[in-house]
Amino acid sequence: MLGSLKLRAILIAGGSVIGLAGAGALTWAAIVAMTPWLGLAGSAALVGAILSMTAAAAIWSATRPSVPMEAELSGVTAAAANTVAYIRDDTLDTLTGMSLNAVSKMVDKRPILTLLGVGAAAYAVTRAPHAGAGIVDRMLSRLI
Fold it and tell me: Are 38 and 75 in a shared domain?
């Protein structure tokens, strides 16, 4: 199994290097082929512009959101609200000193910031439990 994984990694790396070399060779061939009509600088500029526009179009299409931002944020808000709904009020009060209403307001006002805050709090408590409690307390007081 491990030998197959190593072989795949080597093939992927080799294929990437060979593919980049091939793309470079095709680019140089296009420049050389157009040199009699446009000159070396002109053909290099034209090929570079075409490649840059192609790369920009690929990046633009890859980074367009597949769902509208409002729908994505409503899903985050609903997930955070559902998570809070499963936590009993006394458990939340014991852990954070905050009521369920205060947490619900935090989720409604700032859903993404609340999720990031919970993640940072979990990381802080995991890394340094004694110092993490103070950090979590300061973060929660700022989120309210």
Answer: no
pTM for the predicted model, two decimal places: 0.43
Cβ contacts of 46 within 8 Å, gap of 6 or more: 34, 38
Return the amino acid letter for 20.
Answer: L
CB 89 within 8 A of CB 99: yes
Q: Are residues 95 and 116 in the same domain?
A: yes
Q: Which domain holds residue 46?
A: 1-64
Reported as half-sphere exposure (CB side, CA atoms, 13 A), residue 65 has a value of 7
The 10s digit of each residue's pLDDT in 11-54 is: 888 998 999 999 999 999 999 999 999 999 999 999 999 999 99
